Amino acid sequence: MYRSLFLLLLPASLVLASEASAQRIDGVIVVGAAKIAAQKAQLTLLGKRDRVVDSATTDVFGGFTLKGDKPGKYTILVRRTGYMPVTTEAFELPEGEVLTDTVFLVGRQAENSVKDVLTESIRRVFGSSPLGALSRYVGPEELGPERDRYMNLGDVVRSGKLLGVNVVGIGSNQCLRFAGEGGCAQIFLDGLPVDIRSDIVSIADVEALVAIRPMELGMAVTEARRWDNTRYGAVMVYTSRFAMR
Fold it and tell me: Taking the domains of the chain in order of start, what are their residue ranges?
Protein backbone atom coordinates (compact mmCIF):
# COMPACT_ATOMS: atom_id res chain seq x y z
CA MET A 1 0.00 0.00 0.00
CA TYR A 2 1.40 3.42 -0.97
CA ARG A 3 0.47 6.71 0.65
CA SER A 4 1.85 10.22 1.02
CA LEU A 5 2.42 12.37 4.07
CA PHE A 6 2.74 16.14 3.74
CA LEU A 7 4.63 17.98 6.46
CA LEU A 8 5.30 21.69 6.82
CA LEU A 9 8.70 22.95 7.81
CA LEU A 10 8.94 26.23 9.66
CA PRO A 11 9.26 27.79 7.13
CA ALA A 12 10.24 24.97 4.74
CA SER A 13 8.15 22.06 3.42
CA LEU A 14 8.73 18.35 3.76
CA VAL A 15 7.13 15.67 1.62
CA LEU A 16 7.27 12.03 2.74
CA ALA A 17 6.20 8.89 0.86
CA SER A 18 5.94 5.67 2.89
CA GLU A 19 6.30 2.02 2.09
CA ALA A 20 5.95 -0.97 4.41
CA SER A 21 9.10 -2.21 6.14
CA ALA A 22 11.05 -1.17 9.26
CA GLN A 23 10.43 1.83 11.49
CA ARG A 24 12.74 4.41 9.99
CA ILE A 25 12.99 7.35 7.61
CA ASP A 26 15.19 7.14 4.50
CA GLY A 27 15.50 10.21 2.31
CA VAL A 28 17.24 13.08 0.60
CA ILE A 29 17.33 16.78 1.51
CA VAL A 30 17.40 19.41 -1.25
CA VAL A 31 17.40 23.22 -1.00
CA GLY A 32 15.51 25.81 -3.04
CA ALA A 33 13.95 25.69 -6.49
CA ALA A 34 17.23 24.41 -7.94
CA LYS A 35 16.99 21.37 -5.61
CA ILE A 36 20.62 21.55 -4.52
CA ALA A 37 21.63 18.61 -2.32
CA ALA A 38 22.11 19.61 1.32
CA GLN A 39 25.50 18.04 1.95
CA LYS A 40 26.77 17.40 5.48
CA ALA A 41 23.56 18.68 7.11
CA GLN A 42 23.22 17.67 10.76
CA LEU A 43 19.84 16.03 11.39
CA THR A 44 18.22 15.24 14.72
CA LEU A 45 15.06 13.18 15.09
CA LEU A 46 13.08 14.53 18.04
CA GLY A 47 10.32 12.82 19.96
CA LYS A 48 7.91 14.24 22.53
CA ARG A 49 9.21 17.25 24.50
CA ASP A 50 12.11 17.50 22.02
CA ARG A 51 13.63 14.24 23.25
CA VAL A 52 16.57 13.27 21.02
CA VAL A 53 15.84 9.89 19.41
CA ASP A 54 18.38 9.63 16.60
CA SER A 55 20.81 11.74 14.60
CA ALA A 56 22.50 11.57 11.22
CA THR A 57 24.63 13.56 8.78
CA THR A 58 23.57 13.81 5.13
CA ASP A 59 25.94 12.46 2.47
CA VAL A 60 27.14 14.20 -0.73
CA PHE A 61 23.73 13.57 -2.29
CA GLY A 62 21.81 14.89 0.72
CA GLY A 63 20.82 11.35 1.71
CA PHE A 64 20.08 10.28 5.29
CA THR A 65 18.50 7.60 7.49
CA LEU A 66 16.81 8.22 10.85
CA LYS A 67 15.31 5.54 13.09
CA GLY A 68 12.41 5.99 15.48
CA ASP A 69 12.49 4.01 18.72
CA LYS A 70 8.72 3.51 18.72
CA PRO A 71 5.64 4.50 16.70
CA GLY A 72 4.44 8.03 17.26
CA LYS A 73 4.93 11.67 16.39
CA TYR A 74 8.34 13.11 15.58
CA THR A 75 9.99 16.24 14.22
CA ILE A 76 13.32 16.66 12.43
CA LEU A 77 15.75 19.44 13.32
CA VAL A 78 17.96 20.36 10.34
CA ARG A 79 21.25 22.22 10.89
CA ARG A 80 23.51 23.38 8.03
CA THR A 81 26.72 25.35 8.28
CA GLY A 82 26.05 29.05 7.70
CA TYR A 83 22.27 28.79 8.15
CA MET A 84 19.77 28.97 10.98
CA PRO A 85 18.26 25.59 11.88
CA VAL A 86 14.79 24.66 10.67
CA THR A 87 12.41 22.16 12.25
CA THR A 88 9.55 20.20 10.74
CA GLU A 89 6.09 20.20 12.21
CA ALA A 90 5.17 16.99 14.00
CA PHE A 91 4.60 13.97 11.76
CA GLU A 92 3.52 10.40 12.42
CA LEU A 93 5.98 7.53 12.14
CA PRO A 94 3.82 4.36 11.87
CA GLU A 95 4.92 1.10 13.42
CA GLY A 96 6.97 -1.16 11.13
CA GLU A 97 7.19 1.24 8.19
CA VAL A 98 9.93 2.90 6.16
CA LEU A 99 9.25 6.47 5.04
CA THR A 100 11.06 7.21 1.77
CA ASP A 101 11.47 10.97 1.83
CA THR A 102 12.37 13.95 -0.28
CA VAL A 103 12.79 16.96 1.98
CA PHE A 104 12.47 20.31 0.23
CA LEU A 105 13.98 23.22 2.18
CA VAL A 106 12.54 26.48 0.88
CA GLY A 107 11.95 29.98 2.23
CA ARG A 108 14.08 32.77 3.71
CA GLN A 109 15.33 30.85 6.71
CA ALA A 110 16.26 27.80 4.66
CA GLU A 111 17.84 29.60 1.69
CA ASN A 112 19.36 32.77 3.17
CA SER A 113 22.49 32.85 5.31
CA VAL A 114 22.14 33.09 9.08
CA LYS A 115 23.45 36.68 9.03
CA ASP A 116 20.91 37.72 6.38
CA VAL A 117 18.09 36.12 8.39
CA LEU A 118 19.13 37.82 11.64
CA THR A 119 19.59 41.19 9.92
CA GLU A 120 16.01 40.97 8.62
CA SER A 121 14.70 39.90 12.03
CA ILE A 122 16.45 42.82 13.76
CA ARG A 123 15.07 45.25 11.18
CA ARG A 124 11.55 43.94 11.86
CA VAL A 125 11.96 44.32 15.64
CA PHE A 126 13.21 47.92 15.53
CA GLY A 127 11.59 49.18 12.33
CA SER A 128 14.98 49.91 10.75
CA SER A 129 18.46 48.43 10.55
CA PRO A 130 20.62 49.53 13.53
CA LEU A 131 24.10 50.73 12.66
CA GLY A 132 26.58 47.84 12.80
CA ALA A 133 23.87 45.43 13.94
CA LEU A 134 26.09 42.34 13.58
CA SER A 135 29.32 43.83 14.91
CA ARG A 136 28.83 41.72 18.08
CA TYR A 137 27.63 38.42 16.71
CA VAL A 138 28.09 34.82 17.83
CA GLY A 139 26.70 32.25 15.40
CA PRO A 140 25.67 28.57 15.47
CA GLU A 141 29.14 27.26 14.56
CA GLU A 142 30.74 29.17 17.44
CA LEU A 143 28.06 28.27 19.98
CA GLY A 144 28.00 24.56 19.10
CA PRO A 145 31.20 23.64 20.98
CA GLU A 146 30.18 25.83 23.94
CA ARG A 147 27.22 23.59 24.74
CA ASP A 148 29.58 21.07 26.32
CA ARG A 149 31.36 23.75 28.36
CA TYR A 150 28.60 26.08 29.56
CA MET A 151 25.10 25.62 30.92
CA ASN A 152 23.41 28.96 30.24
CA LEU A 153 23.58 32.31 28.46
CA GLY A 154 25.17 33.98 31.48
CA ASP A 155 28.09 31.55 31.36
CA VAL A 156 28.71 32.36 27.68
CA VAL A 157 28.66 36.11 28.36
CA ARG A 158 31.07 35.70 31.29
CA SER A 159 33.47 33.81 29.00
CA GLY A 160 33.85 36.97 26.88
CA LYS A 161 32.24 35.55 23.74
CA LEU A 162 29.93 38.57 23.47
CA LEU A 163 32.45 41.42 23.44
CA GLY A 164 31.59 44.43 25.57
CA VAL A 165 28.72 42.74 27.44
CA ASN A 166 28.94 41.77 31.12
CA VAL A 167 26.76 39.99 33.65
CA VAL A 168 26.12 42.27 36.64
CA GLY A 169 24.17 41.84 39.86
CA ILE A 170 22.92 38.66 41.52
CA GLY A 171 19.60 36.91 41.94
CA SER A 172 16.56 38.83 40.77
CA ASN A 173 18.73 41.92 40.18
CA GLN A 174 20.98 40.20 37.67
CA CYS A 175 21.11 41.63 34.14
CA LEU A 176 23.31 42.06 31.07
CA ARG A 177 25.07 45.42 30.74
CA PHE A 178 27.30 46.95 28.08
CA ALA A 179 30.66 48.24 29.29
CA GLY A 180 30.41 51.96 30.03
CA GLU A 181 26.60 52.02 30.22
CA GLY A 182 24.63 52.92 33.32
CA GLY A 183 21.75 50.49 32.97
CA CYS A 184 20.71 47.02 31.86
CA ALA A 185 20.28 45.88 28.26
CA GLN A 186 16.97 44.49 27.05
CA ILE A 187 17.00 40.76 26.21
CA PHE A 188 15.01 39.72 23.15
CA LEU A 189 14.17 36.03 22.76
CA ASP A 190 13.50 35.09 19.12
CA GLY A 191 12.60 38.72 18.43
CA LEU A 192 10.35 39.30 21.46
CA PRO A 193 11.39 41.39 24.52
CA VAL A 194 11.49 39.31 27.71
CA ASP A 195 12.19 40.07 31.36
CA ILE A 196 14.42 37.13 32.31
CA ARG A 197 17.86 36.58 33.81
CA SER A 198 20.60 35.31 31.53
CA ASP A 199 21.33 32.39 33.86
CA ILE A 200 17.94 30.79 33.21
CA VAL A 201 18.39 30.73 29.41
CA SER A 202 19.80 27.27 28.61
CA ILE A 203 22.70 27.37 26.15
CA ALA A 204 21.38 24.09 24.70
CA ASP A 205 18.55 26.11 23.13
CA VAL A 206 20.63 29.04 21.84
CA GLU A 207 21.70 29.18 18.17
CA ALA A 208 22.88 32.78 17.75
CA LEU A 209 23.52 35.95 19.76
CA VAL A 210 23.64 39.59 18.65
CA ALA A 211 24.46 42.49 20.99
CA ILE A 212 23.54 46.05 19.94
CA ARG A 213 24.73 49.10 21.91
CA PRO A 214 22.34 52.04 22.52
CA MET A 215 24.25 54.35 20.15
CA GLU A 216 23.94 51.73 17.41
CA LEU A 217 20.19 51.50 17.88
CA GLY A 218 19.75 55.28 17.47
CA MET A 219 16.29 56.40 16.38
CA ALA A 220 15.19 52.78 15.95
CA VAL A 221 14.71 52.67 19.73
CA THR A 222 12.14 55.46 19.83
CA GLU A 223 10.21 54.03 16.89
CA ALA A 224 9.80 50.53 18.36
CA ARG A 225 6.53 50.39 20.29
CA ARG A 226 7.56 47.33 22.33
CA TRP A 227 10.89 48.81 23.45
CA ASP A 228 11.41 49.67 27.11
CA ASN A 229 13.18 53.05 26.91
CA THR A 230 14.70 52.59 30.38
CA ARG A 231 16.95 49.89 28.88
CA TYR A 232 20.46 50.44 27.57
CA GLY A 233 21.03 48.47 24.39
CA ALA A 234 19.73 45.09 23.28
CA VAL A 235 20.91 41.48 23.41
CA MET A 236 19.16 39.40 20.76
CA VAL A 237 18.95 35.68 21.58
CA TYR A 238 17.89 33.28 18.83
CA THR A 239 16.98 29.67 19.59
CA SER A 240 16.42 26.53 17.56
CA ARG A 241 12.68 27.33 17.73
CA PHE A 242 13.08 30.63 15.88
CA ALA A 243 11.13 30.80 12.60
CA MET A 244 11.15 33.70 10.14
CA ARG A 245 7.56 34.44 9.19
Answer: 3-108, 113-239
